[in-house]
């Protein structure tokens, strides 16, 4: 189906096969709606985003926008349509998944990932990337790894004051 074309068209998405399979199922369930819309890129990206949200995978709209050139507003509009039509139950993103992703992209060892994962035992799903970034930065610095603040801010797509807030939070907690 057309969702597979996203993988070919945007090889830099680096998303797991399971996510594309879930997006494929979502597109199939849409059936007539998808046919009527002729599998537009925004609709397919919205299926992919819905797949990420239903599975709890850490995918950000900002990242999709950067990688594909399709605006967040357009993806969200199509995403809302999908959620309404199919009545999808979406999970809030898990900060631990962001910790794993950030540690991998920053090249940090498992010990930093384990400590950061234990620190993010919080409720705050809308802040998952910020919590994860703060925990990773705090854990890396605590274990003696030099890590540039700007690099973490760029990767997590958060502001520097937000990172500072969460680092202070973990400093007070530990």
Automatic annotation (TrEMBL):
InterPro entries: Cyclin-like_sf, TFIIB. CDD domains: CYCLIN_SF (cd00043). Keywords: Transcription, Transcription regulation. GO terms for biological process: transcription preinitiation complex assembly. Gene3D superfamilies: Cyclin-like (1.10.472.10). The keyword Ubl conjugation does not apply. One of its GO terms (cellular component) is transcription preinitiation complex. This is Transcription factor TFIIB cyclin-like domain-containing protein. It comes from Candidatus Marsarchaeota G2 archaeon OSP_D.
